[in-house]
Amino acid sequence: MNQDDVQARACREKACTFADTGLCMEGLEPEECPHLRSDDDVAEDHDSEPLPVEPSDPGGRYFFGDPVPLDSAHEIAASYDTKLIVLLGEKDSGKTTLLAELHNLFLIGPVGELLFAGSITLPEFEKRCFLARTASGMDRADTERTKFSADETRLLHLCVASTSPRVDHHHLLIADLSGERSRLVRESAEEAESLRPLLHRADAIVLTLDGDAVTAPATKHTTKARRRALVQGLLEVGALRDDANVLHVVTKLDVVRSRKADPAVQAACDEMASMFGDKILSLSHFRTSARVEHGDELQPGHGLADVLKAWVHAARRLPQLSARTQPLAERSFANYRFAPGSACRREPAR
Amino acid sequence: MLLGLPSTGKTTFLAALWEVVSASERSGLRLQHLYEGDRSHITARHEEWLACKPVRRTTADQDPISLSLRRTYDARTLRLTIPDMSGETYRLQFEQRRWGSDFEERFQSTTSLMVFVRSMAMKEPTPLSALAPALREMGGGDGGIDSSDDAVGQPASTESQARTWSLSTCCTQVKYVDLLQFIAHARGGAPIRVAVVVSAVDELDGTELENKPAEFVRAKLALLHQFLVANPHRFTSRIYGISAQGAKYTPESLANLRSRDAAADRIRVVEDGNTTTDITRPLSWLSFDEE
Predict the structure, then answer these.
(1) Between the N and C ends of chain B, which has fewer C-beta atoms within 10 Å?
(2) Which CA distances in Å does A77 have to A18, A155, A158?
(3) CB of B50 within 8 Å of any CB in chain A?
(4) Tens of pLDDT along A39-61?
């Protein structure tokens, strides 16, 4: 029996000094003494040691914060007039950075005329900003890549408010699809088809074009070819329909300007319009610089207010209803659209 | 309810309030009746405050203080129940995304909220770009682009150097907005009155935001400000600057603070550009919709 065991098995007799000396006051062996605490007693003591204090009642309420699975989006859509925004684009084209810097803009004030009014995924926006902050320990701003998930699309929620002439809330659900997903869509009709329910429900489809890549001699042709293949692939399987509202967003404008390559970007926009402009309901172009790392001509978040405004005002052309129209979308979420003050309206896929 | 992250001045406010309602003749609210309960916590904090000693932080939630106050100019009474909640409790609620059923009940039944933010103790979302000029001077690159094709778009930093993101790294204003979202959610959208208190407002002295708590909130807590303005159906808010201590305790300031005729004269309350020592003003507004 070592010294720790001796001390732990202190005798129940107050006068006994077993704990200090290891000797029974009645001269008995430890196994013989009825007053000595047994190993079981000692074990029970350890079991009953107080657990670390749980600061909150485990039966209490658990709050939101995680991205919203697509299948749960109806809970928000059923409560508020909600716009679904889908971000598509190649890896490193700036989709996540756009969201991160939009959040950063709200941290210093309203974005354009829109105020931040809430988000049930607020920590997720913070997470996307982390690698661009001093707190990250990085020495140059970066953005964590959106993880590819083949079977589950998760959404960020953002509520913004216009205040004139009265306070109006605009709820946005934003799907930030990974660049890997765009690559698969280019290469596989099945993958393109898998996006059909999501894109049919989308009020705006944001197609990001990397301003850096499209103006660099080594990558400009590939970048444009990939964008063509992406749009063409979605059109061919009917994922992109003639009622789609596409926002073509050129990112990294600071790099473009530092190269004096605005004409190249204009050409890329013109090509997009000439090839696909007549195949979709609406195609509008935006030029942004979410972060400004080159030159001092632009302010961080350049162009994002216009993009946000376009999201808020995004509207699809809803198909005409007839008595024989049947909803065809696989996901029920894609069949519904809600408006404030009105009953749920079932929207048929055609 | 008093809401605030750790070390944001909630307990110091209560200690100063205790002095004002029980001893100050210029207070808009006076103590009328104190209900039964354990007063040891508040009296101990009050004595620390009177002696110009730093008021000890509340590390565990305390039983609520229950008292009735009488408004001096019309004798209307107000019954208050104020729990001194530990800032740690709120911090953990944000990070664990959870609170207990006792909290749920408190926030469902409360009619008003004081949100404490300490002016100089905030985690700000400083972008790395703000360090770019310093890095340039240190020879860490100019952040400009290399027009050679291979180098374009490559980040210079390595992710292995990066710290890991966690909820604790979120900036201060995000934590406050999220906690208010919890409360709004738990209340089912029922409206609540919110007094935003910029505590230790004396720390802003000498800056362009001296005695300008509303401007401070607009500038440094812009997300919180927008959130409150954009949700008028849920939050009716007003902004106060309060220095319950009067000044940061230094040998010079202690001599000055102790020289005041009344202990309550150390207090500074700023609202709409007006300064007073009446620390009950936020409570009057929260309770009576007027000072």
Answers:
(1) C
(2) 71, 12, 12
(3) no
(4) 544 433 333 333 333 444 445 66
